[in-house]
Amino acid sequence: MNAPDRFELFLLQDGEKKITEKIFTGLSNTSDFILLKEDHTLGNLIAEHLKQAPHVLLAAYKIAHPNVPEVMIRVQTDGTITPRDALRQTCQTLVQMYFALGREFQKEFALRQFADQGDQGGAGNAGGQGGPY
Amino acid sequence: MLAEIPTMAIDLVQIEDNSTVLADEFIAHRLGMLPLNAEGVENLFYSRDCDCDEYCDRCSVILSLHAKCTGDENMHVSARDLVPSGERISQTLGNPIISDPDGLGPLILKLRPGQEIKLKCIAKKGIAKEHAKWAPSAAIGFEYDPHNKLHHLDLWYEQDAKKEWPPSEYADWEEPPQEGEPFDYDAVPNRFYFNVETAGALPPDAIITEGIKVLQIKLAQMVKDLSEGDGDGNGAYDGPRSPEFGGGGADGWGGGQDPGFTTPYGNGGNQSAWGGAGAGGGTTPYGTTPYGGAGGSSW
Q1: Which of A68, A109, A122, B232 is disulfide-compatible with B298, CB 3.0–4.6 A?
Q2: pLDDT at residue B229 in the model
Q3: How far apart are CA B61 and CA B39, in angstroms?
Q4: Per-residue pLDDT band at B91 (split at 50, 70, 90)
Q5: Which residues lie below 8 Å from residue B70, measured CB to CB, with a gap of 6+?
Q6: Residue B1 pLDDT
Q7: Count of pairs with CB atoms under 8 A, one residue in A, one in B
Q8: Which CATH architecture does the domain made up of B7-136 adopt?
Q9: Which PANTHER family is this protein grouped with (chain A) (predicted)?
Q10: Roughly what angle, to the nearest 10 degrees, separates helices A83-118 and A40-52?
């Protein structure tokens, strides 16, 4: 049978690298990053956050074909930092943001459960909010 | 990200005896759809990563089913009748989820008098990108801006949109718009209401936490990969920076802004990304050639 393995969508094959950087010569300080075996989840997330990052002039992503699990992210910086560093910083910030979000969620969720145990059937008021968002 | 949280699902079915009206593959498909308890699935290996040939106790949970209709009435075989066997990592991992009041679980098939079914199921760990049966959640929805202050929605109406559209259940959580309030062009959505529904494999809060974790792992892996590339030209030189994110934010390149810092490796060829940004390190300021023309930078 010639059916491709089911995990080819998300597992790197032998010798494949997660990220490859290709310098884009059409613009100054611009690089294309090819992420293999990723989808809009990471592409959109990173591109949107790169746009808010300092020194980043341009950030965009595309998935050339919906059947091909490859994300291309193009980053242009103002020259203070390399696109690679911009991308790395963004990822680091995101990891920390998710860390904060996760911690905040668990805290608020535990509080919520505690409060619900305290007064059974009490109408839920705006208590379960929180997190950096 | 709620499509990449690992859960358990029946992936292989070995049928010994099937005299039911349903075809083997039909039953196998039905079995695959059964939600199984996935708490503690992180202690289980993926079968493809495991050392074993096909499956073993460290990468799978075995459930067996043996039923024969001996009475005169049709017999119902449901998820309750699946019996886990073998050594398991925990006593709950891989158990079929049974949440109905009768304690039967989902109906798998029905037997006419005299029919028999005997099979062995191998439940494995997987993610929903491979097959939707591994999806942890039954439904996930989110909404924002319950009062449509951002005008992202254009509500259809006959006479009055306010009267005709029911308010969102989160409408009391946010300030309703004031009468005659000017439209804020710069506003962006900053509060999202998620609705997470599960089939019982994981509790909703665990799905959120796991989802965050999966994303973090992905991003951390990217940070690591991006950092590794820097070291290429310098061989063993790893830099004082920890390749993980733990090092605390910006120090990865911050070192480069220390004017006193000159990288001893700078002349050797490829300067490391942070060394190169320093006044002493690179030959080319980043402004014109972004990649530091100094010597065959590998990236």
Answers
A1: B232
A2: 65
A3: 13
A4: confident
A5: B113, B114
A6: 63
A7: 119
A8: Beta Complex (2.170)
A9: DNA-DIRECTED RNA POLYMERASE I,II,III, DNA-DIRECTED RNA POLYMERASE II SUBUNIT RPB11
A10: 100
Cβ-count burial of B12 within 10 angstroms (0-12 exposed, 13-18 middle, 19+ buried)? middle
Section B229-239 average pLDDT: 45
If you search the block for the tokens 């075989």, which residue do you land on? B77
In angstroms, the CA A85 to CA B251 distance is 11
- The 10s digit of each residue's pLDDT in B165-210 is 988 889 888 888 888 888 888 888 989 999 999 988 999 999 999 9
Structural domain boundaries of chain A?
A: 6-117
Distance from CA of A118 to the nearest CA of B (A): 20
Rounded to whole angstroms, the Cα distance separating B95 from B37 reads: 5
Q: How far is the C-alpha of B116 from the C-alpha of B50, rounded, in Å?
A: 34
Higher pLDDT, B252 or A44: A44
Question: Distance between the two ends of chain B, CA-based, in angstroms?
Answer: 30
Residues of chain B with CATH 2.170.120.12: 7-136
Report the gap between the CA of B93 and the closest CA in chain A (Å).
23
Is A29 in contact with B290 (Cβ distance < 8 A)? yes
Closest-approach residue (CA) in chain B for A130: B191
| ipTM of predicted complex | 0.83
Question: Quick check: helix, strand or coil at residue B99?
Answer: coil
Report residue B260 as tokens: 């006193």
User: Which residue is closest to A32 within chain B, CA to CA?
Assistant: B299
Residue B297, pLDDT score:
38
Mean pLDDT of B62-76: 94
User: Could you report the per-residue pLDDT of B94-105, keeping only the tens digit for each?
Assistant: 899 999 999 999
Q: How confident is the model at residue A85 (pLDDT cuts 50, 70, 90)?
A: very high
∠ CA(B204), CA(B133), CA(B33), 5° rounding? Answer: 105
Pairwise CB contact (< 8 Å): A18 & B192: no
Look up the CATH architecture of domain A6-117. 2-Layer Sandwich (3.30)
